[in-house]
Design a protein that fits this description.
Elements (H helix, E strand, L loop, with lengths): L1 E5 L10 H10 L4 E4 L7 H11 L2 E6 L19 H18 L3 E3 L10 H21 L2 E4 L15 H11 L4 E6 H7 L3 H8 L3 E6 L16 H10 L5 E4 L12 H5 L5
């Protein structure tokens, strides 16, 4: 299996996301994924990525300031133009760093109406059509309500139903096992059943979102092997909060019989 560092969660010992590219390389990673690098220009991000000599697998859609809870407007009626502008900006960054996947975040909503679902699906159709012209995959991710209360998309069935209806090779599921366990459980069957729609996978232990070998609900030695046996061979993002020093915590990879 191939593991990539999530720079929003890992190497936070460094204050700058730009510096984390080099730290990931130093730790042995060949690839990274990131949130949208708010506050940094395309040139700055491209330079940091190229100087580190790592591949960029995925970048999140420009969402606003995530520290303020701004997680996108994809499901917000009346903000279609803002969504389209955010998508265009993110594509520019993705192309600059060679990222072939964009996580299209849905946003947080106080109340949800049928109009939100219509807006969400229409925006995803727009995104899939645009991403097709760019050779980039869009992915959508159900996020559990414990970690991010009021996040719009927290239902795997609804996510898959939309993916089926839009029927695009450029819109798939981002399957974070951390969220899957919180939302649905029954990991063995759900992973196998969802796999035909999966475009990207992430992992973290439940409930504390630390390394896969820390105490928690998931037996990751089994789950990672099950993911592989279910036909997935692409990158797995390590979207966990290191319990201590990021680099020291990576010992689980070798303990599980893998390499970076």
């Amino acid at each position: 299996m191939k593991f990539c560092a999530n720079l929003a969660f890992m190497f936070t010992e460094s204050a700058s996301i730009l510096e984390r590219y080099a730290l990931a390389k130093d730790a042995g990673f060949k690839a990274v994924e990131t949130g949208f690098p708010l506050g940094y220009s395309i040139e700055q991000v491209k330079h940091a990525k190229e100087a580190a000599g790592v591949e960029q697998v995925l970048i999140n859609l420009k969402t606003g300031d995530v520290t303020k809870g701004e997680l996108g407007v994809t499901a917000v009626p009346g903000k279609e133009t803002e969504f389209q502008e955010n998508l265009r900006t993110t594509i520019e960054y993705a192309k600059a760093v060679g990222a072939r996947k964009i996580h299209i975040m849905a946003g947080k909503l106080e109340t949800v109406s049928p109009q939100n679902w219509t807006t969400y699906e229409n925006n995803l159709k727009y995104a899939a059509d645009v991403l097709k012209t760019q050779g980039i995959l869009g992915v959508i991710e159900p996020i559990n309500q414990h970690s991010v209360p009021k996040y719009f998309l927290s239902d795997y069935k609804k996510a898959v139903d939309i993916i089926k209806r839009l029927d695009s090779d450029h819109l798939k599921l981002q399957l974070d096992i951390f969220h899957l366990q919180h939302i649905s459980g029954d990991l063995s069957h759900n992973i196998q059943n969802l796999m035909p729609y999966v475009g990207h996978i992430q992992i973290a232990q439940v409930p504390n979102r630390n390394e896969p070998d820390t105490a928690g609900e998931i037996n990751y030695q089994y789950i990672i092997e099950h993911i592989q046996n279910s036909g997935y061979s692409d990158w797995i993002g390590l979207e966990y909060k290191p319990a201590g020093n990021t680099k020291n915590g990576l010992k689980w990879i070798q303990d599980f019989g893998y390499n970076l």
